[in-house]
Amino acid sequence: GGTEGLFANKTLEITDDVLASYKNQGGFDLLGRSIDQIRSSKQVSAAMTTCQNLNLDGLVIVGGVTSNSDAAQLAETLVQKNCKTKVVGVPVSLNGDLKNQFVETTVGFDTVCKVNSQLISNVCLDAISAGKYYYFVRLMGRKASHVALECALQSHPNMLIMGEEVALSKLTLMEVINKICDGVQARAELGKHHGVLLIPEGLIESIPEMYALIQEISILHNNNVPVTEIPTQVSPWAAALFQFLPPFIRRELLLHQESDNSAQLSQIDTEQLLAHLVEAEMIKRTKEGRYKGKKFSSVCHFFGYQARGSLPSNFDCDYAYVLGHISLHMIAAGLTGYMATVANLKDPVHKWRCAAAPLTAMMSVRRHLRGPGAIPIGKPAIHPSPIDLKGKAYELLREKASSFLLDDFYRTPGGIQFEGPGSDAKPITLTIEDQDYMGDIEMLKLYLDKVKTIVKPGCSRDTLKAAISSMISVTHVLTVMSHPLNAELPLYHFN
Amino acid sequence: GGTEGLFANKTLEITDDVLASYKNQGGFDLLGRSIDQIRSSKQVSAAMTTCQNLNLDGLVIVGGVTSNSDAAQLAETLVQKNCKTKVVGVPVSLNGDLKNQFVETTVGFDTVCKVNSQLISNVCLDAISAGKYYYFVRLMGRKASHVALECALQSHPNMLIMGEEVALSKLTLMEVINKICDGVQARAELGKHHGVLLIPEGLIESIPEMYALIQEISILHNNNVPVTEIPTQVSPWAAALFQFLPPFIRRELLLHQESDNSAQLSQIDTEQLLAHLVEAEMIKRTKEGRYKGKKFSSVCHFFGYQARGSLPSNFDCDYAYVLGHISLHMIAAGLTGYMATVANLKDPVHKWRCAAAPLTAMMSVRRHLRGPGAIPIGKPAIHPSPIDLKGKAYELLREKASSFLLDDFYRTPGGIQFEGPGSDAKPITLTIEDQDYMGDIEMLKLYLDKVKTIVKPGCSRDTLKAAISSMISVTHVLTVMSHPLNAELPLYHFN
């Protein structure tokens, strides 16, 4: 029963027999999922009571940013209350947004991206076969665009509208629409009237005026303003935006009001909103004589639930087994409030480095307003990492963007393979980022070698002195830089 | 450009180089798809002109029931007009409804069923993990339920509502709803509040009163009655049904009016209609005290386009290569109006039997009314085959139905494999039906052996005489039975 089962002390002894039919399978049906939360003091104390009643040595919490934030809080509470149960986190999430100096990727991300890329590539081939539809595909993955970026690199769709890009450039809704329309127009000039666009579900949060409108509606809703009166009570510019939106989106904005803002946002059919507005803009451009291609037609998709519960990829199976083993060792070693981590994932398994990293080292306190009048949130938490717009993966996408847009350079990865070619494939973003890291190390080696080449027997005494002085300074800085982290947050290494 | 490219004489010479990057790939992007039709006299004559201009030896038409009906008509026209081009059909369709004594299955059916089964099994595991949602999954496949049946046998969802079953039992919409609700209730009594239902897109056509309502609306529409007035002008019982339906379905019924009735029907979100009505009925049952389980919640899916264009399964690749070779031999042999066929598909490739079957042998003339006032349709065509409700595949489903419903006996086939276990899997329905056919042959052999056992040296003269007389009669009947078909419609065998 998931966390509810934990609160209610529902137990199941996992023997080899029980486990046999669940090994290497997808889903969470062995232990179940329920509310995925151990947060309120009532929930925390229920979890603690169960730990005490069962005299548990360890509790392993499997999940993403929120579950592991909960794990940290629970670990602290158990220590305070002298409960012996050690709490250990394991990074598992399809969103791929639990990513930091300790965690290279999460279990499930590879599988979900592979299944989605398979479906996107099917849609790409369907699009180019018929040559007359634009497919707008929305992908799960919460606020960050990791799933969408990985899928784009795997399947090469024509466009990817990333939330992080939109947020950085502060693009308005109409600027996003115009960007898409310019792409449609550029393709039409090549005689292409089909295409595939990827839209991360978090995009809607990244468009400033949409987010603000949603916040205004949310506040009125919380003040018990009747739904029918909300449109007349929002600010004038928000009302103008609201009236501009198609009716089905207006309904969704008014109806889907839940306590968790991010959950609510994911229920908005962003792909339909964009398709609708792009169509309207293309009709406008046609009337004004700016667009002379065929009529724009779209088909919308939301690839979410059907990628969850999939048979996991070989990489995810390996990764999960290793994390499971680490968890056991962590509890045996008496660690609490730590996460099982594996480094060097891009390398073959024998080069993987197992470790335990303190959950607190991944946590930070953010003060951000959630819309006008909202109060600052000041609780420490593990926050979702956005796409690094200076990273290699994004750079690769940028390099290929124009070819993706115009050349129909679709790539067909197919279903997840368990044997033969492709069965050991890892997420492209993981591989690239690691190449970048190793590349930097190579570059450092080059510089060190260069120093050796310059400063060798025969060089001037002054050069030698300068070199020694500089290197003392460099090593000092590096020692200081790496020391405080090690002291405060000891990394626990298994060898 | 598909058929439009054919009409416009757009050509492409397919060399090995051109073909190299398309081999074993999905989609129709090498030659394109457009209107998938060579039917009107204008279209037929445009196709003929191209054939003559290019001095074509043969034209290979790849498609399902409608494309091959068109192929037959085109072949006849070309012969009448003394055009030398031979027209050959190849059975390719994801629907699996081109199925008869010559055609065991179509290219694409295996792939589409495997991709859909993969997604359905993902959804099943997601459903059982959370334990609180019913997933209503609508599948493509036109009027017949072949895709849905095959997917059900591959993934073992809790329920499958087959159009053919509903049509045979003449179930009303509310009877279908009650059937689903009874299933939900039976599961709730076992403490299960989740589930997965498969709904073939053709189901809506099979519910008598829904079909009649759609026809009434269609006729009013064709008589240019304004959309707003249609609801008031339908017959009283149709108006009552219309008012009973949820608003989004009413809108869809009124708005989606296209010339091709079947296309229009597929745009109705049947899965949402059923989910909506099941929820209403469960609320009603709760109020009446007949249902005491948790609140019923549903999530809807339409698995259509994302399964097309997939990398084909090994079976589909093999099958398509063989059909291509047959087509070449058929044209070389001067056959026109024939379809390339392969028998014994369930056996290893070396046991496959290649043949050419006359398209006319698959065609029939049906006189059926399409709603009140419609005129009889009397053109020969290849008609989609419904599921054989006396067949082995359906029998297997019936046997397992109660276990599927209650035991969460979900099966996880995973993505299409190209190497290793499962890579040579064939459609279950194909394998079962073939086993049935071979089983009958085995049974016949048993009877023949029994005759030999009874009538052997030592048996009475009378027994011998009776046996000879009976066997003369049997062989005579069989000769007559098999002769007319052979005479009129010679099967052309390649050895």
TrEMBL record, chains A, B:
<keyword id="KW-0963">Cytoplasm</keyword>
<dbReference type="GO" id="GO:0003872">
    <property type="term" value="F:6-phosphofructokinase activity"/>
</dbReference>
<dbReference type="GO" id="GO:0006002">
    <property type="term" value="P:fructose 6-phosphate metabolic process"/>
</dbReference>
<dbReference type="GO" id="GO:0005829">
    <property type="term" value="C:cytosol"/>
</dbReference>
<keyword id="KW-0808">Transferase</keyword>
<dbReference type="GO" id="GO:0009749">
    <property type="term" value="P:response to glucose"/>
</dbReference>
<dbReference type="InterPro" id="IPR000023">
    <property type="entry name" value="Phosphofructokinase_dom"/>
</dbReference>
<feature type="domain" description="Phosphofructokinase">
    <location>
        <begin position="2"/>
        <end position="324"/>
    </location>
</feature>
<keyword id="KW-0324">Glycolysis</keyword>
<dbReference type="Pfam" id="PF00365">
    <property type="entry name" value="PFK"/>
</dbReference>
<keyword id="KW-0479">Metal-binding</keyword>
<dbReference type="GO" id="GO:0015979">
    <property type="term" value="P:photosynthesis"/>
</dbReference>
<dbReference type="InterPro" id="IPR035966">
    <property type="entry name" value="PKF_sf"/>
</dbReference>
<dbReference type="GO" id="GO:0046872">
    <property type="term" value="F:metal ion binding"/>
</dbReference>
<keyword id="KW-0460">Magnesium</keyword>
<dbReference type="InterPro" id="IPR022953">
    <property type="entry name" value="ATP_PFK"/>
</dbReference>
<dbReference type="GO" id="GO:0047334">
    <property type="term" value="F:diphosphate-fructose-6-phosphate 1-phosphotransferase activity"/>
</dbReference>
<protein>
    <recommendedName>
        <fullName>Phosphofructokinase domain-containing protein</fullName>
    </recommendedName>
</protein>
<keyword id="KW-0418">Kinase</keyword>
